[in-house]
Amino acid sequence: xxxxxxxxxxxxxxxxxxxxxxxxxxxxxxxxxxxxxxxxxxxxxxxxxxxxxxxxxxxxxxxxxxxxxxxxxxxxxxxxxxxxxxxxxxxxxxxxxxxxxxxxxxxxxxxxxxxxxxxxxxxxxxxxxxxxxxxxxxxxxxxxxxxxxxxxxxxxxxxxxxxxxxxxxxxxxxxxxxxxxxxxxxxxxxxxxxxxxxxxxxxxxxxxxxxxxxxxxxxxxxxxxxxxxxxxxx
Length: 234
Ligand SMILES: O=C[C@H](O)[C@H](O)[C@H](O)COP(=O)(O)O
Hints:
Blueprint: H1 9-18, E1 28-31, H2 35-45, E2 52-55, H3 58-66, E3 70-72, H4 74-77, E4 80-85, E5 89-91, E6 96-97, H5 104-112, E7 114-122, E8 126-127, E9 134-138, H6 143-152, E10 156-159, E11 176-181, H7 188-196, E12 201-204, E13 206-207, E14 213-218, E15 221-224, H8 225-233
Parallel strand pairs: 1-2, 1-4, 2-3, 4-7, 5-8, 7-14
Antiparallel strand pairs: 5-6, 6-13, 9-11, 9-12, 10-11, 14-15
Helix pairs in contact: 1-2
This protein binds ribose-5-phosphate (R5P).
GO molecular function: ribose-5-phosphate isomerase activity
Function: Catalyzes the reversible conversion of ribose-5-phosphate to ribulose 5-phosphate.
Family: Belongs to the ribose 5-phosphate isomerase family.
């Protein structure tokens, strides 16, 4: 089950660089996770802006500290002015699938406590409907039961393996990730609620209607998702 697309490097570069324009000195900024966010952080580090960063993964925290950012915990700052994060797939209504890097739990928490959540993707991530696997972070103790409940919802779940070591991937929060195939997701909001109702699910990677804006990068530059949707509907 392929959960992550490589995406287009040029699209990531242009959108990661452009989103820096939304950042002002004094802001608390949510730093998402992934390669597109990596472009954003490297660009931001080179600008004359003084921000506090709240990181959504150990991976991002290591990068942010290396780049010299003032990194603090969400609990210590209380709320975030602007969260910037990537996604694995975006539909024309701005619903997202995230968690290809298994960071979606912290990403969703930070996005939820942010005044503004801006998603940055390259154009290979945009589709008319969501159909990639939905990653679900699961408490290890409840794994088999959660897999059963996913089946009851009409999905199929596969435990994500680590790749580098034998056995399952363990998240930054000490949990497992199950990648679930629900085929074409016609009602993301409904599926999101249904998965959240399963006891033992820590968080899932569907982000329905959470992004305040989605910026899409390509070799033609950066556009807002709503412009792209408008063109498709014509
Ligand atoms: O868990 C990982 C995150 O949700 C990432 O934001 C997502 O996988 C996109 O990553 P990338 O920018 O590397 O394609």
